Amino acid sequence: MKKLTFRTEIQKILFTEELKGQISDGAWENSGPSDHWEVWCDAEVDFGDNVGRDFHVKKDNYNLNSRHLVEVVGDRMVDMIKVHKAFPNMPHSLCEDAGSYSISKLREYASEPNSQFWQKMLNSILRYTDEDGLKTALESDSYSMKELNKDLKEMKKTLKTWKTK
């Protein structure tokens, strides 16, 4: 199995929950070669001391900290990490959802006809927090845009780094 290791759990979460999607069908969807994204999305992602990758790639020059990318998805990534820090037992994919929506907005969506998706998401998030808890997490200064940019810059280097054996 191909393995990609970042220095921190936060970097792992940013990559698995947002940046993989940006590489495959977001910011770099029209990059060449056409299958450049496959190896990144198939890799096992972890965090620890031995940072880097142990596999060959067709493309490794993703500008993860580009101003354009951060303008589009930066707030969402910051909020996702704030939720993760406040509720570390919440699954990472739910942290992204909770960071993207307020509970009141989810309740509104869940009240509409044929809203099973939103009901399920709301119920899953409410297993870990309530409206006040989520609001407090999102308003906290536990993670900032400055920290995100620092992480993204380091992650960009990690993608180019070969792991030591």
How are the elements arranged and paired?
Layout (H helix, E strand, L loop, with lengths): L2 E4 L2 H17 L12 H5 L1 E4 L4 E2 L13 H20 L5 H9 L2 H8 L5 H11 L4 H9 L5 H16 L5
Parallel strand pairs: 1-2
Antiparallel strand pairs: 1-3
Helix pairs in contact: 1-3, 3-4, 3-7, 5-6
Assign the structural class, choosing from mainly alpha, mainly beta, alpha/beta, alpha+beta, or little secondary structure.
Answer: mainly alpha
Strand order in the sheet with the most strands: 2-1-3
Average of the residue pLDDT scores: 90
User: What is the overall number of helices?
Assistant: 8
Distance N terminus to C terminus?
15 Å
| Unreliable residue runs | none
Rg to the nearest angstrom?
17 Å
> SSE order, as H and E?
EHHEEHHHHHH
Beta-strand percentage range:
5-15%
The protein's oligomeric status is: single chain
How many E-type strands?
Answer: 3
Give the overall shape, derived from the CA principal axes: elongated
Helix content: 55-70%
The largest pleated sheet is described as: 3 strands, mixed
Domain tally: 2
Q: Notable features of this structure?
A:
2 domains; elongated; 165 residues; three-stranded mixed sheet; mainly alpha; 3 strands; single chain
Would you write up a description of this structure?
The radius of gyration is 17 Å and the shape is elongated. It has a 3-stranded mixed β-sheet. The chain has 8 helices and 3 strands; from the N terminus they run E-H-H-E-E-H-H-H-H-H-H. The model has no long low-confidence stretch (mean pLDDT 90). The chain has 2 domains: 3-66 and 146-160, no CATH class; 75-144. By secondary structure, it is mainly alpha-helical.
